[in-house]
Amino acid sequence: MKFIKENHHGISTVLAFALIPLSGFATDIYIPSLPSMAADLNVSNAAVQLSLLIFMISSGSSQWFVGSLLDSFGRYRLGMAALLVFTLASFSIGLSHNIHLIYVMRIIQGICVSLIVVGKRAYFVDVYSGEKLKHYTSMFSIIWATAPIAAPFLGGYLQTTFGWSSNFYFLGIATLLLFILELKYSGESLKTFHPFKMDAILKVYGTMIKTPDFVLGLIIIALCYSMVIVYGMTSPFIIEQVFHHSPVVTGYCSLLSGLSLMAGGIISKSLINRPFSKKIVTALVVQAVAIAGMLSTSGYASNLYTLMAFTIVIHMVGGFIFNNLFAYCLGRFQKNAGIASGITGGSLYVITSFLSYTISSVLSIKTQTALAEAYLLMALVLWGAFALFTRARMAHQRALATA
User: Fold this and answer.
1) Phi-psi region of 364 (alpha: psi -120 to 50; beta: other; left: phi over 0)
2) Dist CA 254 CA 156 (whole Å)
3) Which residues pair with 188 in a beta bridge?
4) Which residue has the higher pLDDT, 88 or 33?
5) Taking the model in full, what pTM does it have?
6) Does residue 355 come out as left (phi exceeding 0), alpha (psi in the -120 to 50 range) or beta?
7) Which of 39, 136, 236, 313 has the fewest CB neighbours in a 10 Å radius?
């Protein structure tokens, strides 16, 4: 067993942060290419959007289960195997022009990403504790937001210069380089291996999914991320087909969306010691004002500038709320960090994929007005979920106080 060398902890931490946004890169980098993929593969827009859904369901459902494997067999060997397979799957998609083969490779990529990302989130719980752990977990959504910032921006240029296949070649090359760096500098971080006993594992899962504040926290982060994904799935068609801009413009708009998401995470980190409920309620009020503004102006001022102005605010608030609730869910069960990380990340992807694809399809989002209506629908559910979460969190705090 290869363990991390003491003098490699710093670079191992950097590599862990570098791999956390991999799931976002695997979805966001080819967003500007969706219209071109549909045309080149001779399939419908919904068919290429389905490749996003398939990846997210694969990654999310896998994360529910890989946590127990990572807690029993370690993070390193499984993560290295997943990096190598992800690389091969990326090259396969780039070479393929068959949508069904792309679907299969996206399923494989989703499973690999779940092993990589869950293991790297658990790495921080393995290596750090106390305030340092709190500091690092509060950075997760900020680091994760680099994907929606950089990936579509890069993808827009790759699409314009080389075509949609280049997005997947880039993913393959990038993960291959990270595999080599992991091989040289990283190693096993898990100190205590839990026996792989199904009864005990199922008991831990049962405890987690029966914990109200934890489950409601998962729903809230999924709703925040759904707003970003619905925008990502529909904005290329609005920007390129309704507003008649190029894929590069779509990439720039996604860059602004990602920056706003990251800004929300940074603001959240700077306010980490402020009262929890008060700052979330304030954020929800700001979000409500932005959605109302987008809805009221879209009928007579529908253009790229109004679309992005309100989207930036909505996504910034989403990043703020996401950062707070994501850190809360990860830290809720520290004795079973791998399983908690897996359930948190898995539920995020599965709930988000169903919500975003259903909302995009049912509302048939092809205009700025329809996107504003989708934001409003998700916000209403978010506000109700947070009200229930607050009640459950207070009950948990009272139980701890009397224990």
Assistant:
1) left
2) 9
3) 3
4) 88
5) 0.73
6) alpha
7) 39
CA distance 287 to 150: 24
Quick one: 292 exposed, middle or buried, by C-beta within 10 A (0-12, 13-18, 19+)? Answer: middle
Nearest to 304 by CA among 364, 358, 225, 371: 371
Q: What is the CA radius of gyration of the chain?
A: 20
Question: Token pair of 96, please?
Answer: 């393929």
Token pair for residue 60? Answer: 């999310």
pLDDT of 1 above 70: no
Most trustworthy range by pLDDT among 143-152, 279-288, 331-340: 279-288
Q: Count of CB atoms within 10 A of residue 343's CB?
A: 27
Q: Predicted confidence band at 44 (pLDDT cuts at 50, 70, 90)?
A: confident
Q: In terms of DSSP H, where are the helices of 96-185?
A: 99-127, 130-137, 140-144, 146-162, 165-185
Q: Do 142 and 323 form a contact (C-beta atoms < 8 A)? A: yes
pLDDT of 27: 86
